[in-house]
Amino acid sequence: MNILTYTSLFPNSVQPVHGVFVYQRMVHFASRPGNRVVVVAPVPWVPAWVANPKYARVREIPSQEKFGGLTVFHPRYLLIPKISMAFHGLLMFLGSCRIVRKLAHSENFVAIDAHYVYPDGFAAILLGRMLKLPVVVSARGTDMNLFPMFRLIRPMIRWTLRRVVGGIGVCTPLRDAMVEMGLSFDQSIVIGNGIDLERFRPMEQAEARRSLGLPEGATVLVAVGALIPRKGFHFLISAFARIVQQRPNCQLYIIGEGDQRRELEGLARDHGVEDRVHLVGGCPNEKLRNWYSAADLSCLASSREGWPNVLLESLACGTPVVATKVWGVQEVIVSPTLGVLVEQNVGDIARGLEEALSRSWDRQALIGHAASRTWGVVAEEVERYFSSRFGPGKPGVSPG
User: Fold this and answer.
1) Do residues 174 and 287 both lie within one domain?
2) Which of 103, 237, 255, 371 has a 20 to 30 A CA-CA distance from 230?
3) What is the radius of gyration, based on Cα positions, of the chain?
4) What is the pLDDT of residues 186-239, one digit of tens each?
5) How many domains does the chain have?
6) Is residue 397 part of a domain?
7) pLDDT of residue 331
């Protein structure tokens, strides 16, 4: 199968971990016999006078590059943050038309594989109609657990889902949300994310702590994610402050960066744990293995998640988790032997942390569970599903 993957959620030479889960799925799909993938990953056009480093770095992304084993094109499209969201899908389509049409002349694509229902999936449907190609869209999280709440976006999500030939949710609640918004249940499927066992494998805890300069005798808790309200670090820090009263050797390391840094630092000071809560900053994906292996416990306190990769990553390194039971979390932590599920409030998170720290864990069982969900397994599931949607005798174009 010759597939055009279309998504703004894709890593590049400037942002190497951006949407790495999409890359992993499709590079493993492309490695299967008979498959080929070309990626179009549009990025916003940033004028030269914009000095904000967050946006200025986007200018450094090349128009074409090789990422891993895949050829990736990065057409530019106009985007005005927080203003043009209602036109985002149309602007993405207009910015991508030229390169996609050119690729279609040289590549015998059988379908478009879009990731993120809006705006990416919306733009992909327009491209599919232009090229007379069927479109399958994957829901990843915010596109279905937040965007449908916006009055101007909701109709475009519904329009998109009624015109795809298939929809993949990375967890059951996302698939159900797609069906509720217009996707046929018979066209839908759940395919969760996978794990890279070469990148995420256990290290000796003492070795991992030495590599990071962590105290060997401490009880170490690790949490990985962007410093944004949705990740619930304000709940976690407050719950951790309660734990410290009984476990004074505890240390919490939060790996990630974001706009909430100052607020979280202030919260740690207010609780008197500023010397025990460490906001480490960003970390390359390949270095996270050291953090998970160094930890006694990994924590996720989010209010919304699709399929949180951090859970499988932690388990693959032999580290149990405490996680809020939202959306796809319960499809990763399927047994109490893997972790403790909690509600997103300070009291229940504190209870979960104490329970997890008091238990003995079979780390080999954690590693074995993660190892059953490799990206190779995911790629095989995707290939089988694609064949069912646009193989021989299947629909040739997206419905009008």
Assistant:
1) no
2) 371
3) 22
4) 999 999 999 999 999 999 999 999 999 999 899 999 999 999 999 999 999 999
5) 2
6) no
7) 94
In this prediction, residue 12 carries a pLDDT of 94
User: Helix 122-131 to helix 154-161 angle, to the nearest 10 degrees?
Assistant: 40
* CA–CA distance, 51 with 62 (Å, rounded to integer): 19
**Which residue's structure tokens are 């309660």?**
242
Residues 176, 32 share a domain: yes
> Which of these, 339, 249, 248, lies nearest to 300 by C-alpha position?
339
What is the reported pLDDT for 48?
Answer: 74
CATH of the domain at 239: 3.40.50.2000
| 14 and 147 within one domain | yes
C-alpha angle with apex 85: 10 to 165, nearest 5 degrees? Answer: 60
- Residue 264 has a pLDDT of 98
Please state, in angstroms and as integers, the Cα–Cα distance from residue 167 to each residue in 26, 190, 390, following that order.
16, 9, 13
What are the 10-residue block averages of pLDDT along the chain, 400 residues in total? Answer: 96 91 96 97 85 79 94 93 84 97 95 97 98 97 90 95 97 95 96 95 96 94 96 98 95 95 97 97 91 98 92 97 94 96 98 97 96 96 95 58
Give the helix ranges, DSSP H, for 18-170. 20-30, 53-56, 88-106, 122-131, 142-145, 154-161
Question: Could you give the CA distance from residue 234 to residue 202 in angstroms, rounded to a whole number?
Answer: 29
Task: Examine the domain organization and report whether 156 and 255 are in the same domain.
Answer: no
Give the whole-angstrom CA distance, residue 259 versus residue 234: 13
- pLDDT for res 168: 98
What integer best gives the mean pLDDT of the chain?
94
Please check whether residues 182 and 210 belong to one and the same domain. no
Measured over the CA atoms of residue 202, residue 338, residue 308 and residue 168, the dihedral's sign is positive
Helix, strand, or coil (residue 265): helix
Q: 173-208 as b/e, with b when 16 or more CB fall inside 10 Å?
A: bbbbbbbebebeeebbbbbbbbbbeeebbbbebeeb
Neighbours of 215 (CB within 10 A): 10
Residues 127 and 242 in one domain: no
**Same domain, yes or no, for 304 and 382?**
no
Distances from the Cα of 15 to the Cα of 26, 43, 227, 316, 356, angstroms: 18, 11, 17, 24, 34
Which range marks the domain in which residue 272 is found? 205-371
